[in-house]
Amino acid sequence: MPFTNKFIQQRIQKAELLKQDGINPFSNDSKRNTTIQKYLNVNSDIEEKENKRDENRHYIVSGRIKFLRVMGKASFVKIEDESGMLQIYVTRDNLPEGFYNNHFKKNIEVGDIIEVGGFPFVTGHGELSLHVSELKLLTKAIAPLPEKFHGITDKEVRYRKRYLDLIMNAEVRKTFQTRSKVISLTRRFFEDKGFLEVETPMMHPIAGGANAKPFVTHHNALGIDRYLRIAPELYLKRLIVGGFEAVFEINRNFRNEGMDATHNPEFTSIEFYWAYKTYKDLIEITKEYFAYLFEHLNLPTLLPYGDMEVNFDNFNEIPLIESLSSIGGVDADIVNDKEKILAFLTSKGLEANSAMNLGQLQGELFDEFVEEKLIDPTFITEYPVEISPLARRSDENPEITERFELFIAGREIANAFSELNDPIDQLSRFEGQMAAKDSGDDEAHEMDKDFVEALSYGMAPTAGQGIGIDRLVMLLTNEHSIRDVLLFPAMKPLMQEVQEI
What we know:
Radius of gyration: 29 Å
CATH architecture of the largest domain: 2-Layer Sandwich
Number of helices: 15
Shape: elongated
Number of strands: 18
Strand content: 15-25%
Distance between the termini: 14 Å
CATH topology of the largest domain: BirA Bifunctional Protein, domain 2
CATH superfamily of the largest domain: Bira Bifunctional Protein, Domain 2
């Protein structure tokens, strides 16, 4: 049952006492006329005044009490709103008779949200503060905040109770403010480039657009299963067929797979498609995009990330097969021979799946020996066709595709390619994926006949790209778990929650 904690019961009793004295502990008539940060900025000149105060200025600010030092006739309090922290000075004689002793000292506590009015002054310790002449309780917090000196150190608690994490940790709020800015800047960048923002379905009749396990739901009215989308790609390309030449979508995708530091079942990405362009053009626009973000976020191009420094003035480009030897250290005589790769993986104590084709095994080599070494931004290009079912084949070498993935700080950030627009080839690729599914690959791409039909009407030469917003924000905020950049990450239910269900 809720509210059985003795400390919560004590606070509930205080809320009842306030009600009995005609004070609403959950009022809704705030008169705030400025934020804390604006107050601090506007009154920064008080330090220069002779008596370091200005009683002719009057401000009303609101915030949550984060610190409270109650003395006999006066108290120092620190309140916080979204913009910052402010010290206020509360005295008995400047409040209505009896309010200080009967209500402020007895019933107002850390965690409560209050509104105060008064004039600016600077304390003897040099801190710009507010001398209170009026005080109103806006919201009584009936649950006490965590002990302030240690805050919330248990990450499980932080993720499950993000509201507490945000209350106690200003740096966490900054991370999510940065995330919001990244999404806003991304939208502006692509709009300024002439792209049209669109929305495509979240529930798909076929799980397509990427190789991944879907979440399945059921549509009662139609009596059919639907799949939460794993990617918007095939719908966005249908729009290119329809005549739009540059489209993008920022939204959620869902993949029913494992969870770790870089994977959450639902995640945010931007996907954009650009007619009459190739993957080489996408390399250039990606560089422009990062330069735009760094400029508008005021970030240094030599960006710290954990114990690494990532140089965003140094974008590299290398074909995947070449990277296996030049970066991964795999003997060049091995990388194009399936049996030699299988033997090599076995010798390294790694799983060697003989059912995999050569391209898949080359992908395994890359994952094991190259990816984590890519610190500075690196475009890995020319992926094997076997692991790129939607990418266009190279005219020079039909065994590889016109594709890149961008890796930064040892992690994939983006995936892009010149799009396959040959409906006959696309049908053949889908058939190959279905054969792989029949052989046990439960992440292989489903057959999408409607998409093949759409291509049959003609899709202009097109390049498309997806960028993982969550991983991008992790990189820009120096966070190392995807849960730290998601307000409400997926969590395993606690035992008591399971029992209640």
